[in-house]
Write a structure and sequence with these properties.
Helix 2 (14-33) runs parallel beside helix 8 and helix 2 (14-33) runs antiparallel to helix 9. The chain has 9 helices and no strands. It is mainly alpha-helical.
Length: 242
């Protein structure tokens, strides 16, 4: 039980959240710059695009913008089905599996040439983003955040900055700084993708795989180290008691 609880705590730390936000910014910029100017993570923009295309009578464009919405929706449904039906509400294994599936989907997307219909790659990217969004929602200090888009994080950041400055609430100021780091990470991810896509094109999405896999392995190693340290400490306490 300690193993599960500690792993969950690691994935909710600010550093891990920043990695997820960076990957979210990368995926959104990837779908926009490489595959037809739609948004893989922030579906609000796609709703607007669908409406605009319908009004203009561009039904092909409307369908093109609708696909990421449907893919995102499907990812949420599948994610929760896996959580309840396969892992029996075990969040430790669930989070592992969501990242694993995301890594596979994004790896496949990197092989799809730009000459192919953008719908194929956008479906995979939106699906991956929905899995990440579904599984990772909280930072360790308890605040909810969005790891793949900005709007809610901007509101929370501004709200906590106001309370921190105007009401001199140190805890709110700390939260505001956390949200600032999350927003900056998203922005950096978008910048890196835009730069990489100029040379790596569709293969630039593999950078997200590298970052997420590194974060996952790093959290696993840290988890083992801390558990070993905790075990040794427990042994010392038991020996002292004797």
């Amino acid at each position: 039980m300690k193993d599960k609880n500690y792993y969950t705590e690691i994935t909710e730390k600010l550093g891990f959240g920043m990695v997820l936000a960076l990957s979210g910014g990368f995926m959104d910029a990837y779908s926009y710059t490489v595959h037809g100017k739609v948004f893989a993570t922030g579906q609000t923009g796609n709703f607007v695009l669908v409406a605009a295309h319908l009004i203009d009578g561009d039904y092909a464009g409307a369908f093109h913008s609708l696909v990421p919405i449907l893919s995102f929706w499907l990812g949420i449904l599948i994610s929760w089905h896996i959580f309840y039906s396969y892992f029996k509400e075990n969040r430790h294994l669930w989070k592992h599996s969501m990242i694993a599936i995301e890594l596979i989907a994004l790896f496949i997307a990197g092989f799809i040439p730009r000459s192919y219909p953008d719908i194929i790659a956008n479906t995979l990217v939106s699906f991956s983003a929905s899995l990440q969004f579904c599984a990772f929602r909280k930072l360790g200090s308890g605040e909810a955040y969005a790891c793949i888009f900005c709007t809610g994080n901007m509101r929370s950041c501004a709200e906590n900055f106001y309370k921190g400055i105007a009401r001199k609430d140190k805890q709110c100021m700390k939260k505001a700084i956390h949200f600032t780091y999350i927003l900056i990470s998203f922005f950096i991810g978008a910048i890196v993708c835009t730069l990489e896509s100029k040379t790596l094109h569709q293969m630039s999405i593999w950078s997200v795989d590298i970052v997420l896999l590194s974060a996952l392995v790093g959290s696993y190693v840290l988890n083992k180290h801390m558990l070993k340290k905790e075990h040794l400490k427990q042994q010392e306490l038991e020996e002292t008691a004797v």
